[in-house]
Amino acid sequence: xxxxxxxxxKHPVRLQKNNAQKIIYRTxxxxxxxxxxxxxxxxxxxxxxxxxxxxSTCWVVV
Length: 62
Hints:
- This is Ribosomal protein S7.
- It comes from Nostoc parmelioides FACHB-3921.
- By secondary structure, this protein is an all-beta fold.
- The protein contains no helices and six strands.
- The protein has a six-stranded mixed beta sheet, with no helix packed on it.
């Protein structure tokens, strides 16, 4: 019997680079709820782990 795995949900991450904004979809892990109701998580972009912060509908690299 196979072990149940929750499906991975990909969230939109807004990436700002040299005045250009693009939205990429990535899996966000280690989501933590902070006291001031903002959420922080980690995401892997180009094989590097970066912190992201929830901002309305998108996540933004911190």
